[in-house]
Each structure stands twice: as structure tokens, then as C-alpha cells.
Amino acid sequence: MVIVLKNGATKKQIDELMSWLTRFDVKTNLVEGVHSNIIGLIGDTTQIDMESVQAKEIVETVKRVQEPYKNANRRFHPEDTVIEVRGRKIGGGTLNVIAGPCSVETEEQTISTAIAVKEAGATMLRGGAFKPRTSPYSFQGLGKEGIEILKKARDITGLPIVTEIMELTDLDLFEDVDVIQVGARNSQNFTLLKALGRCDKPILLKRGLAGTLQETLMSAEYIMSEGNTKVIICERGIRTYETATRNTLDLSAVPLLKQKSHLPVTVDPSHATGIASLVEPLSLGAVAVGCDALEIEVHNDPKNAWSDGAQSLTPVQFAETMKKIKAMAEFCGRPLDVCE
Ligand code: PEP
Ligand code: MN
Fold first, then answer.
1. Atom of ligand 1 nearest to the CA of 103
2. Which fold has domain 2-63?
3. What is the pLDDT of residues 200-233, one digit of tens each?
4. For the domain with range 83-331, which CATH number is right: 2.40.50.180, 3.20.20.70, 3.40.50.880, 3.30.9.10?
5. CA-CA distance, 1 to 226, in Å (whole number)?
6. From ligand 2's centre to the CA of 307, what distance in Å?
7. Among 88, 96, 168, 340, which is disulfide-ready with 293 (CB 3.0 to 4.6 Å)?
8. Ligand nearest to the CA of 274
């Protein structure tokens, strides 16, 4: 971190600032120039709040030269993080495909979709039991019953289950869930993130609707700073001025996140576009740019889905898409994860 001081800062003011900075356990280095003075901070500056420094009377500007996240930073953890989920490995050179319905609606719907995605080669099953809907009048999910249905689907197919948590008070219900998803709308629910940081389960963390990559990594940092290092980041499209698609898929986020962080990166082309016909091309694009996993909505009867039917693939469409995903994954040297 570099702090540029205002012209005319007195020695007393500079000394006061330097002594305030010592509380953060960093080395301070004052460089006196002709026109202005600069303080360079060396060490772990993640604890220092830029705004508090900027608020000091004698500070002209303050700039970070290192990222404010530490646990999620590849600089301090050069190896890819590989997260094990019932024998599957997310990260580290293979591709996982998490597929299933937007919402768990009925046992029949979830199980038939689960069997179909498994047959097509999906490696995990998704399904929302608690649904964050824009309207309070839309279907809100089956809750606890939805999780029970997912567990049955897991028993039948062997696919690990991924499902979203919305409320901290529901955490006990997720005891048997394999991967807990944090949705885009909760990506800065810091109380929830911290609590998930204290549990021992993989967390699939979605990027916020307007979240920058740094904010997304800081959300991951919230989880990791409490001890849980099993975080999978998910690019699911961001809000832009474009209205032709539900969101705008930021594919550049994938290689950039992987450069900045060692955490595995997933892409959700379903919520990114909202349009079923765009799911295949963007899945292929996501694999090409290096994602570790895809999350794709599939429904046994999209026209009658209780949520997100327009972006859901039919089992037949998904099977076709999977053939191309597998070919692309092979081509990119990151073959589909196979679980013995
Ligand atoms: C979901 O995956 O079910 C979902 C609601 O996604 P997002 O949080 O990305 O909107
Ligand atoms: Mn959905």
C-alpha cells in the first residue's frame, strides 16, 4: 500500500499517522520528496481499511499495490485448489457438470431429471429447494421437503447434490447436502458467508448481480477467513445495459479469476442468458476459456417448469449438449471428471 501525503503535512502529523499505522503490524517506510511525501507499507495490509486511511487529514491518495484478499489469492497459494465431493474433484484439471432443475418441484420431476442428466454424463445434481424469486408471489421452493427429494435422487443416481441456502437459520437442513450454493443475491450477505466459513462443506459461491471480480473474491475471502477453504466461484452473468439476455455472461472473468485465485471456477450459462438455445454455445465457450465446472438447468418438461423454464434444457437437448461439452473438454485437455 502506498500513501501519498498532502503538501504541507507537518512532521507531527506524519509521526501521528506513522504511529497509527504501526497497529496493523506492517513496516512503514517514509520517502521524503521535494513536493510531497510518500509512506510505503510493507507486509500484510489486508487488515487496513483504505477508506480509513483516506479519511486522514494529511492523506492525498492511497493505493493498494496488493490485492485485499489473502486466502483466495494465488500469490500465496500457487497450486490449484481441488475440492473433493463424494469422489469427484472440482478444480485441478478436470471438468464437472452440475445439472438439474431450477427448482425441486416434485419427486417425479426431480428424479426423472436426475436420471436423465446422469445418463447424459452430468457429474452432480443441482436443484433449488429454497428459491430466491424476484416476486414474493412466485413459487418459493419446497424447502425441507425439497432437500429430502434431492437426497432420494442422490440415492438413486449416486450424483452429489448442490442446493442453495438463503437463510442462516436453515443451515441444519443442509447437513446432508454435498455442496451448499450461495446465490447471486446473497453473495454479499456477510453474516451468511461467515457462518458458512465455519462449516466443513464445499460452498458454490455465485458472483453478485453487479459484483466486481474483486468483490466476488472478497466474498470468497469472507468464507475462507473463517476456516472453510472449500470455495467454488461461479460466474453467472452480470447486469449490464443489454436486455436481450437475462444477464451478460462475463467469460473474461474465468481466466482472470483463475489467474488471481487458486479456487475452482464454475460457469452458469443458464442464469447468465435466460435462453435455452444459448446454453450450449456458451457452455462450450466457458470450457474453452478454462472453467472447472458448468452449472446447467435441465428440466424434464421445461414448458411446464415452475421456475426458469425458458432457460432450461430438455433431457434430450442436454444429452446433445453434453456430447459437445465432452468433446470440447477433451480438446482443451480437461476431460470430464469420472468417478470410479
Ligand atoms: C440458481 O442457481 O438457482 C439461482 C437462483 O441462481 P443465481 O443466484 O445465480 O440467480
Ligand atoms: Mn433458476
1. 3
2. Alpha-Beta Plaits (3.30.70)
3. 999 999 999 999 999 999 999 999 999 999 999 9
4. 3.20.20.70
5. 24
6. 6
7. 96
8. 2
